Amino acid sequence: MSDAMKGVLAVGLAAALSWVAPVSAETMAKATFAGGCFWCVEEAFDKVEGVTQTVSGYANGHVENPSYKQVVQGGTGHVEALQVTYDRSRVSYETLLEAFWANVDPLDDGGQFCDRGASYTTGIFHHTEAQRQLAEQSRQRLSEQYDLSSGIVTPIEPLEAFYPAEQYHQNYHQKNSVRYNYYVWRCGRHDRLEELWGEAEGKRLSLFPESS
């Protein structure tokens, strides 16, 4: 290949990258959910096409950069949560909400499954007003479709702060799969989710069929 041809290809590639990058950046967004143990929530969202990054951490609270030990002992006001980065051109916030509800017990105000305490309770933390409105809509539809009129305790709140958890918690389901799978089984997570959502447990509920 001649030097002239290489130069033309290099210029063309640079132009293509300069066009693609801004579009991709503009479609990226964040969402934050609490569903009990963040290991399990992370595994669930890692399976959602269009999710590009998941980070386990601690949402809101009144202590900066808390440790796992501080959070689970109580008194910091944080809950275990997962922050999701997603590509809006590939997956909608509505789909993320459908995946969230399919992986939690929204009737439990004392924790999730075998994990008890305030730091393990559920929550949706919105980043924008549009997210808040969709979250409220999803909760209402969930209540109506599954006859949960007076039982849903999952709050919808603005995200005030998010602190990434310690590195050993990140991607735990991949790095420690044997221990993780035993924990999930012992906790009775799948059994309870199947009781609530049937075949949709751990996958995705159909709350926004118009956007599917």
UniProtKB/TrEMBL annotation:
Superkingdom per UniProt: Bacteria
Q: SUPFAM superfamilies this protein is in?
A: Peptide methionine sulfoxide reductase (SSF55068)
Enzyme Commission number(s) from the entry = 1.8.4.11
* Gene Ontology terms for molecular function: peptide-methionine (S)-S-oxide reductase activity
Catalytic activity from the UniProt record: L-methionyl-[protein] + [thioredoxin]-disulfide + H2O = L-methionyl-(S)-S-oxide-[protein] + [thioredoxin]-dithiol; [thioredoxin]-disulfide + L-methionine + H2O = L-methionine (S)-S-oxide + [thioredoxin]-dithiol
Tell me, what does this protein do in biology? Answer: Has an important function as a repair enzyme for proteins that have been inactivated by oxidation. Catalyzes the reversible oxidation-reduction of methionine sulfoxide in proteins to methionine.
- What is this protein's record name? Peptide methionine sulfoxide reductase MsrA
- According to its UniProt entry, this protein's organism is Saccharospirillum salsuginis
